[in-house]
Design a protein that fits this description.
Elements (H helix, E strand, L loop, with lengths): L3 H10 L2 H24 L6 E5 L11 E3 L2 E3 L2 E6 L4 H7 L4 E6 L17 E9 L2 H14 L5 H14 L3 E7 L2
Antiparallel strand pairs: 1-2, 1-5, 3-4, 4-7, 5-6, 6-7
Helix pairs in contact: 4-5
């Protein structure tokens, strides 16, 4: 039997339920962020998608080699690639998943189960940062084709056929 006291107590607590649910979800997100950051040290790939101005994910996604350097994620790509064009159009918000699930289009969305991060993208033009990031990538991908692509990345950053994008991970 519900008493008047039970009813008054439940009415008093009812407004707090959405706040408590939001806090619980925020706790889950903040717990996932350290897992994603730790996975950046061991993963060979990140999956990236720009966030459109309306807040939705772009249809464009890709698995890509990356470097985790000074707390940020760096990728090297042609300036005509959608990820570079998105930054050029001001679409600097991006979502990334950390892990290796093969080609994103053939992964049946499995990458979405990986640790997830939000980041803000910008073009990185400092030659010293380029050298440091390429050095990290060279060690990371030494057995995965760096002998072929390392010089392409290095030369491309000099001649403009490649750009470096810095993804500053949201705190």
């Amino acid at each position: 039997m519900t008493t008047r006291r039970d009813w008054v107590l439940s009415m008093t607590l009812a407004p707090a339920i959405p706040l408590l649910a939001r806090r619980a979800l925020a706790s889950e997100d903040s717990a996932a962020e350290p897992a994603a950051a730790a996975t950046l040290e061991t993963s060979r790939l990140v999956y990236i998608t720009p966030i459109k101005s309306n807040g939705e994910e772009s249809r464009c996604k890709a698995e890509i080699w990356f470097s985790h350097h000074d707390g940020d994620v760096f990728v090297v790509t042609p300036p005509t690639a959608w990820r570079a064009e998105a930054v050029g159009k001001g679409l600097t918000r991006a979502r990334m998943w950390v892990g290796d699930f093969g080609q994103w289009g053939q992964s049946d969305g499995a990458f979405r189960q990986a640790p997830e991060l939000m980041a803000t993208a910008s073009m990185e033009s400092d030659p010293e940062v380029h050298a440091a990031v390429l050095s990290v990538m060279g060690k990371k991908y030494a057995t995965s084709g760096w002998a072929r692509y390392g010089q392409v990345f290095k030369d491309g950053l000099v001649d403009g056929s490649r750009v470096m994008i810095r993804y500053a991970i949201d705190a």
